């Protein structure tokens, strides 16, 4: 048995890679980051034409009906090119919430629009992992009050999927009365994260929501972030190797020095096994395997650590140039840093894995 991507999946990943090479070069990323535009319309529209927003959405609702493994290999390419576009919230977590907890009417209203890219969704479930600054949302009488922090894909969202303190999920339209939105500054300007403040805001509950649905959303989101880190890390290695092959010092390219060779080899040795870890985690969630949640936790936490090592080491290979905006290496560095902390840092996610296996109270 060979566990790997099918020919169709490889062709799909390659088509996304070629599209992003053309439409998300470093200069385009730099302009988007400088303008705080985490969702350039032309880039998102191009991905919509390829069916990317509807990857997970069933065909009956206008989507492609594929699985999380397909979404992971797509997001790996977006991480490789630090594509400033919404994905984890609007194309993965929100569709899963609707598919597993929404009523038929809610599915018919929102899934076709998400699949076509005519609507975007933000997702606010961070308080189910750990609330800070008194954040948290209360639901009473069909209305929400409180505050949700670190809402993924907040900019340009037409509606939000929000979790309350009781682990119920609600749909809130972006123009709802009493809702205040504010962008939050993070190290990564290629993704949008925001704050939602609710003051008696009308909300529509997802009738099938429970802790299991939220857990599935979190698991899927974490695997996507791991795939994103995988793509960003691979690009940082490629850039380090290319730089080591052209930068000269003492009359020799620095790649000929044993210390630099070891740095590049160690990055590759640490990152390459992560590919199968991400693939298996996505596959396990697709197939509903018993270790799916543990695999998702391991993928997120391990890629967080390996990604940080690769980001640091690649920058060191570049020397002082690695810190300059000219090379733009910091966009990948910051992308990996963002992936590390959103939806739970590695320490917290490892603790969840330990609890799932009965190793921690």
List the SSEs and their pairings:
Elements: H1 7-23, H2 26-34, H3 41-49, H4 68-80, H5 88-101, H6 104-116, E1 121-124, E2 136-140, E3 143-152, E4 159-163, E5 169-173, E6 179-183, E7 193-202, E8 204-205, H7 211-244, E9 248-249, E10 252-253, H8 258-287, H9 292-317, H10 329-341, H11 346-356
Parallel strand pairs: 1-4
Antiparallel strand pairs: 2-3, 3-7, 4-5, 5-8, 6-7, 9-10
Helix pairs in contact: 1-4, 4-7, 4-8, 5-6, 5-7, 7-8, 7-9, 7-10, 8-9, 9-10, 9-11
Report on this model:
The protein is an alpha+beta fold and 361 residues long. The chain folds into 3 domains: 7-116, Butyryl-Coa Dehydrogenase, subunit A, domain 1; 121-205, Beta Barrel (Butyryl-CoA Dehydrogenase, subunit A, domain 2); 211-356, Butyryl-CoA Dehydrogenase, subunit A, domain 3 (Up-down Bundle), CATH 1.20.140. It has helices at 7-23, 26-34, 41-49, 68-80, 88-101, 104-116, 211-244, 258-287, 292-317, 329-341, 346-356; strands at 121-124, 136-140, 143-152, 159-163, 169-173, 179-183, 193-202, 204-205, 248-249, 252-253. The strands form 3 sheets. Strands 1-4-5-8 form a 4-stranded mixed sheet, covered by helices on one side. Helix 4 (68-80) runs antiparallel to helix 8, helix 7 (211-244) packs parallel to helix 9 and helix 7 (211-244) runs antiparallel to helix 10 (329-341). The radius of gyration is 20 Å and the shape is globular.
